[in-house]
Amino acid sequence: MPNKLLIPEIKDIDLIDDIVSERTRNPNKAFFNGYEADWKKRVNEYTDKCGNPEKINVSTIQEEDKSRFINLYTAPTGIVRKDIIDVLRDHSLAMCPFCSEAGRPTTLDHFLPKDTYPEYSLLSANLVPACDACQGVNAKGAKALDAEGRRLFLHPYYDIPEGAEIIILTIKAPYDKGSSFNLSVNDELDTDLKELCVRHIKELNIEGRFRRWFKSEYLRLKKLVLSLLEEDDDPDMVLMAIRLFYRKNKLMGVNYWDTVFYKAVLSNSDLLEFLKDKENLRI
Question: Which of 16, 191, 223, 241 has its CA 20 to 30 A from that of 261?
Fold first, then answer.
């Protein structure tokens, strides 16, 4: 369940000038001076095509020269570190924009892989905060397209409409176990966007990760509701509490896992009736 992010307010074209100037005494001076104009064209191409790997050609830079760009990203000091990487890492996100699971993203993902698109190694719009589960080699890693040339992932800066619900959760009986549910992509999405969402969710194993989280969250909900009913045996309090949890979590975003969960609970009248009877909640 990806989450939309605002595009960083970093003037990448201007920073290219600064980066080239910073290397006046660097062994790579001649290379960057010679490639500066093409580098800027590549940056503009990324912006114009919204980072879509279906529309952006892979780099034609020679293999031995790719490391010149990649090393800019890994450099421990200088303009790149101070004005791009440190700025992007200094975020206040409390969930991953690729999956919407709770937790502060601790890495920066190269949306278009730096080994294939080295000119974008430090392009701010190509650097997206990500959790380890999404960014890892068994999930997104260095992938961009599938075998048929279709893009695999939603771009958090460009692809997600503001406020769009990506996933619909339906919780199914039996409610005593709480392990039966269905996750589906919202049918109201544009067809192309829906198909991309399906690939994104599958490739990042979001459903499998959500399934493990759901079991624990459902158990916590039952324990919480039981404690409320034991303090004050008023079934109306259950509905009020769940509505409060939903509204609180919705402030994080409509695709935040807790938001999706509590919306599904509120949408299920049979489940709500089940939760109002504390005898159903004894573990």
Answer: 191
Region of 178 please: left (phi>0), alpha (psi -120 to 50) or beta. Answer: left
Q: What is the DSSP letter of 151?
A: B
- The DSSP secondary-structure symbol of 120 reads G
Q: How far is Cα 56 from Cα 49, in angstroms, rounded to an integer?
A: 7
Structure tokens at 157: 């800066």
Vertex 150, ends 146 and 153: CA angle to 5°? Answer: 80
Q: Rounded CA gap, 56 and 123, in Å?
A: 14
List residues bridging with 95 in a β-sheet: 102
Which residue(s) pair with 183 in the sheet? 169
5: exposed, middle or buried (Cβ count in 10 Å: 0-12, 13-18, 19+): middle
Alpha carbon distance, N-terminus to C-terminus of the chain: 31
pTM here is: 0.90
Is 81:36 a contact under the CB 8 Å cutoff? Answer: no
Give tens-digit pLDDT for 127-138.
999 999 998 767
d(CA 128, CA 142): 14
Query: Percentage of the chain with pLDDT > 70?
Result: 96
